[in-house]
Amino acid sequence: MTDQANRPYPAIEGKLTSASRTTLSHIMTGNDTNLLGTVHGGVIMKLVDDAAGAVAGRHSGGPAVTASMDEMVFLEPVRVGDLVHVKAQVNWTGRSSMEVGVRVLAERWNESTPAQQVGSAYLVFAAVDGDGKPRPVPPVIPETERDRRRNQEAQIRRTHRLARRRAIRELREQRAAEGIED
Ligand SMILES: CC(C)(COP(=O)(O)OP(=O)(O)OC[C@H]1O[C@@H](n2cnc3c(N)ncnc32)[C@H](O)[C@@H]1OP(=O)(O)O)[C@@H](O)C(=O)NCCC(=O)NCCS
Questions:
Q1: Backbone dihedral region of 71: left (phi > 0), alpha (psi from -120 to 50 degrees) or beta?
Q2: How many domains does one find in the chain?
Q3: How far, in Å, from the CA of 133 to the mean position of ligand 1?
Q4: CA 67 / ligand 1 centre spacing (Å)
Q5: What are the residue boundaries of the HotDog ACOT-type domain, all occurrences included (predicted)?
Q6: Which atom of ligand 1 is nearest to the CA of 97?
Q7: Residue to probe by mutation, ligand 1, list 3, 65, 68, most atoms within 8 Å of CB
Q8: Is residue 39 part of a domain?
């Protein structure tokens, strides 16, 4: 089911999911608000990218760049005074890319109520060398049933991303061949 099997690079020893799993926590202040007075979605997206980038760097053992961010979902508004926790882990690895899954939780900074999930996202990072070229990553080793489910779901998203890119490229090539200009 995985296309890791087709990796052209020499085999690299795998790394456990827990080895790079990371939580980034931040209290939201008045500087983070939008015109409605709640926290700006872009502030949350920056935290998501930061946490996922740390995970990708830890897993791959070096620099990694954001290739794509998809399915960023905001479930509830985040408010000033919320303590936001951004939890990220590697769900899947290819040859040089990694899918990082992120969950965003929020709780009042000064109350002992349980944290509530307010968002989630999936990002693809590519590990790069000093010239910015893709470099191989260690295969991720899922440890729990939840990790295995996330790995299987990530493979479904990977298949859909590739199919969507291919279909759009083919459509553009077809329109160009027919001499259609946008
Ligand atoms: C991401 C990047 C390194 C890919 O380089 P490339 O020359 O296109 O290399 P490849 O086509 O071999 O892609 C490398 C891997 O990334 C994956 N990838 C590339 N673009 C992708 C995208 N848009 N979505 C998902 N995966 C992507 C490929 O599938 C491949 O995965 P694999 O090696 O596991 O099979 C390059 O496009 C880049 O540097 N982009 C800018 C990244 C950046 O600066 N991010 C911060 C934005 S400010």
A1: left
A2: 1
A3: 9
A4: 5
A5: 18-131
A6: 34
A7: 65
A8: yes
Decide the pairing of beta strands 97-108 and 82-93.
antiparallel
Q: What is the CB-side half-sphere exposure of residue 151 using CA atoms within 13 A? A: 19
Residue 75: which CATH number? 3.10.129.10
Residue at 59 is within a domain: yes
Q: Please indicate, yes or no, whether the overall pTM of this predicted structure exceeds 0.90.
A: yes
Q: Does 100 reside within a domain?
A: yes
| Domain carrying residue 98 | 3-177
Rounded Cα gap, residues 22 and 135, in angstroms? 22
- Atom in ligand 1 nearest the alpha carbon of residue 98: 34
Domain for residue 182, yes or no?
Answer: no
Q: What is the pLDDT of residue 70?
A: 87
**How does pLDDT run across 52-111, given as a tens digit for each residue?**
999 999 999 999 999 999 889 999 999 999 999 999 999 999 999 999 999 999 999 999
Ligand 1 centre distance from Cα of residue 98 (Å): 10
